[in-house]
Amino acid sequence: MTQRANIDAGAELDPVHPVPPPVASGRATGLTTAEVAERVARGEVNDVPVRSSRSTAEIVRANVFTRFNAIIGVLWLIMLFVAPLQDSLFGFVIIANTGIGIIQELRAKKTLDGLAVIGEAKPTVRRDGAAAEISTSEIVLGDLVELGPGDKVVVDGEVVETDGLEVDESLLTGEADPVLKKPGDRMMSGSFVVAGGGAFTATKVGREAYAAQLAEEASRFTLVHSELRSGISMILKYVTWLMVPTSIGLVISQLVVKDDNFKQSVAYTVGGIVPMIPEGLVLLTSVAFAIGVIRLGRKQCLVQELPAIEGLARVDVVCLDKTGTLTEGGMDVTELRPLGGADEAYVRKVLGALGESDPRPNASLQAIIDAYPDSEEWRCRESLPFSSARKYSGAAFSEGDGENSTWLLGAPDVLLPPGDPSLAEIDALNEQGLRVLLLARTPRELDDPRVAADARATALVVLEQRLRPDAGDTLRYFEEQNVHAKVISGDNAVSVGAVAGKLGLPGAENTVDARQLPTDRAEMATVLDSNAVFGRVTPQQKRDMVAALQSRGHTVAMTGDGVNDVLALKDADIGVSMGSGSEATRAVAQIVLLNNSFATLPSVVAEGRRVIGNITRVATLFLVKTVYSVLLALLVVCTQVEYLFLPRHLTLLSTLTIGIPAFFLALAPNTERAKPHFVRRVMRYAVPGGVIAAATTFATYMLARHYYVGDGAREAETSAATLTLFLVSMWVLAIIARPYTWWRICLVLSMAAAFLLVLAVPWLQTFFALKLVGTTLPWAAVGIAVVGAGLLEAAWRWVDRRFPA
């Protein structure tokens, strides 16, 4: 009757194409091959694309059709008609930059898409009575999807079979308590199984499924929550506001007020507008992120959200789950200790039967299954799946001689009352870093809420966990980088502390039992700040602990691989899942370590620090140029003089003092932890730097206007001003490049040598319209630049003291 009710429910949801699961021998067999083909032909497939990155068209569109590209494109077309080709070089530079951005992002897309296929969840469906793993996109309407602990519900459906099936719907409803599902209950895509197993019929697939409707609103390749990107967007918005009125004033000044050659006036006007645009800043940020994705991809690290690279650079607390992170997934049974005179042969039979009772055993139970094969004499009447909240599992058996018994297997300190004499023996084992499970017999039924109350201890199962060989080195890395590691585990606190101690984690000797943690967030945060190892932590407590740390201003990363970690992974600033972890953990994590190696995390942190630290550096270079360009334009408008530079001059300066150096600086190693307030950190240097550059350059220009007369005076004035601006800009670069390494010194010197080459080679002088006339004014320009460099040093040191980051 139950199964017939499910058929009718499915028909109500889809009256045109009812989806009855075939039934044979009391067990749903799922669709037949012919029925699957029929549904595929009707288009009733789960055709929502798994998007790990933007499409090629979106990448090209995002890089080409930008506000600043449009402005520069119009100016470039104007220059092609009114000035020599060398004054149009800035347009070709933009084309090259855009091409580089597209190529790098396409490379990142290829890397992401390849890794996403490796890490893609493979749900199990039952067809023709046989279970098989298929791609999520191959599920059709009416498919019978099997579920086990950690499995994510990928489409909407209706429960057909249950075996203690408990589902967490918190990611959809916000309710943290698992929901016990019964046949006929609704299954919502986006939820996940925390205990038990079962099967459900797919009633909504593709874009009709609840989770798919949410997923269509966002792509994994997103930069929405990036402080770096939002900061750059804010800067660009203010630059636009400044640029528009300044450009209008400059146009009027050069074209209307000055009665000069029209084409030359246009050229100088464009020369004043183009450098106001920090066009390379957005490009360089995209390239830095894209190259970061490629580098991490080579280490089998799937970045599901690009801001995660930035977020990990800001992390100062890493919360680690012990099992699967510090230890390898597998375990070995090292000892069986019967208690109270129990017969060891009988205990082995019980353990074998318990192993057989769970179709999807966890690592502990799998070790027991390997050690104690099942006896076919026993039959499981009822089972209670393991739950992280309960800390134990159970089963009721009909033994071979007709006797019935009910058993529990789980945490000794949960199943035994405080003060039980066995606990001292268990503590001694835990202190060695061993994991201990208690086998207990209970007179109560499994559905009794107090099933563990009268349990009688029968045996201890001692398990040895395999430490990850690289875990110790990784923990030392975090300590050296001033990132605090917190081990948060559901296992016994003493055992967790012993494992952490073996790996050399500072504070491992002071282990905290989470059952003693205060519930008040502020008090919990105090305990968390002063301790490093926590045992017997429930899934909800993991979530609360992350929130408590965040309340103290910490940026928290959480690693995990089991369903008990999902809530904490979701709430942490950065969630990191192992590739072998459950579907649910991989779905909510921003970063998936496909090689299951905890040792990959330092590479991710280092990549994030490289990107953020270097973009902060080069952003200062770009914005100093924007500030001095706007100020020079305003000075020209106010003094009613001709604009200082042709576009070719500023193309040369931008290339040598910003473009080429910024590219190398953006990709250099950088281990400094990222700091907040990106906009403030950049502008506190860019504003004084731009003001000093503009003032010294304009001073040289006005001095030159009074010094030079006659033919060639205009070119001589521009050349003197260009020399001052280049030298001041080079000093900005020299400051930004600190601390010096051999390659950074070579970079600065090579840019200076390139400028000297332009001044020394006649045809380059002609090409760039640069020729220093006489010796008095050029040396005066150098002297003014030296004063400017001194002012830069003094101003930036004052800023460091007055406005510390």
TrEMBL record:
How does this protein sit in the membrane? Answer: Multi-pass membrane protein
Membrane-spanning intervals of the chain: 64-83, 89-106, 238-257, 277-296, 618-637, 649-670, 682-704, 716-736, 743-764, 776-796
Q: Which residues form the P-type ATPase A domain?
A: 123-217
* The keyword Membrane belongs to this UniProt entry's keyword annotation: yes
Q: What is its main location?
A: membrane
Q: Which UniProt keywords apply?
A: Membrane, Translocase, Transmembrane, Transmembrane helix
The UniProt annotation puts the region (Disordered) at 1-28
Entry's NCBIfam families? ATPase_P-type (TIGR01494)
Return the protein name: Cation-translocating P-type ATPase
